[in-house]
Amino acid sequence: MTICDRDGRVEGWRILVVPHDGESLSHFLGRFRRANHLSVTMLGQVSGLGVKIMRWERFYHNPFPVIDDLRILAGVVGVDADRFAAMLPPHGTRMRHAPIRLCGYCYATVPIHKIAWQYISTRACPECNRHLLSECPQCGVRFPYPALWSHGCCSRCRTLFSAMAQRQTLDMARPSTVPSP
Ligand SMILES: [Zn+2]
Ligand SMILES: [Zn+2]
Fold first, then answer.
1. Ligand in nearest proximity to the CA of 160
2. How many whole angstroms from 148 Cα to the centroid of ligand 1?
């Protein structure tokens, strides 16, 4: 029997959670854990991957997750291992694990953290060309790592991530995709 709820489909002991395109592994793991009421320690135990889960949620990708580990995780959470590979930076792409960055404008459309926002080479949101936020524009507190984005708002002042779009400016330095007349 298949049961549906807000987070996904129930299969065996777990509620399956569907990843979004571009979603970071950290954000996905947080969603899966909350849907299944698992702490990071519990998911580490269930999967046998131990502290690797916590390291991945915090973007500590050194050593880089190997495909065998991703296959183990895939079996536990019910997501194809190739989808996990897409949640990690492409080979050779350097990323920062801090500060965590946000595009409130895109978050308002799809409430996820995108892995591309953490690439060192990314200066503006690849989707909307707005400058990314590294802290809450209202109170200045930095964003927690995405696995903890359960409420979609600042952890201190509770400003909604989607509302922060008002404070994002367009990156004028980037070449426009619209040809000049
Ligand atoms: Zn954006
Ligand atoms: Zn705030």
1. 2
2. 20
Ligand (nearest to CA of 103): 1
In order of their start, the domains of the chain are: 25-86 (1.10.260.40), 93-181 (no CATH)
- Note the pLDDT of residue 41: 96
**103 alpha carbon – ligand 2 mean position (Å):** 15
Smallest-distance ligand from the CA of 168: 1
Q: Is residue 6 predicted with pLDDT exceeding 90?
A: no
Residues 77-90: what's their mean pLDDT?
A: 91
Helix axes 40-47, 25-35, angle to 10 degrees: 90
What's residue 22's pLDDT? Answer: 95
CA 167 / ligand 1 centre spacing (Å): 12
The ligand with the least distance to the CA atom of 169 is 1
